[in-house]
Each structure stands twice: as C-alpha cells, then as structure tokens.
Design a protein that fits this description.
2 strands, 60 residues, single chain, 48% helix, 17% strand
C-alpha cells in the first residue's frame, strides 16, 4: 500500500484537478480492494449535465 503525507496528497490532488480542468476531462479513481470509486470532473465543461443530475444550480 502506498503511503502519503497529507501535504503530498494535497499536492497530487491539486495537480490532478488542474490537469482535468485544463483538458476539460474526467478522471475515475478506483480503490481496487474495496471497489469504491471517486469521479473527478471538469465542472465548467459538464455544468449543464451536472445541474440536471443534481437538480440544482452550480455556482462555478
């Protein structure tokens, strides 16, 4: 299992967020042990779809 400090984890997450936002893309993060999944989306690109799915207006 990989171990990170909180500072290292924040740095990696910030890098991923910038990359996803810059490319208007998405990223699926899966925990292979538990099957849990997190999806990271470029919200500005998917705003209409997200608002429809969530049933509320997003303030970006």
């Amino acid at each position: 299992m990989q171990e990170l400090t909180v500072t290292e984890a924040k740095t990696q997450l910030n890098r991923l967020v910038r990359e996803v936002d810059r490319n208007s893309s998405s990223l699926l993060i899966r925990n292979t042990r538990t099957g849990d999944v997190v999806v990271l989306l470029a919200a500005h690109h998917w705003q209409a779809e997200l608002q429809n799915l969530l049933g509320e207006t997003l303030k970006l």
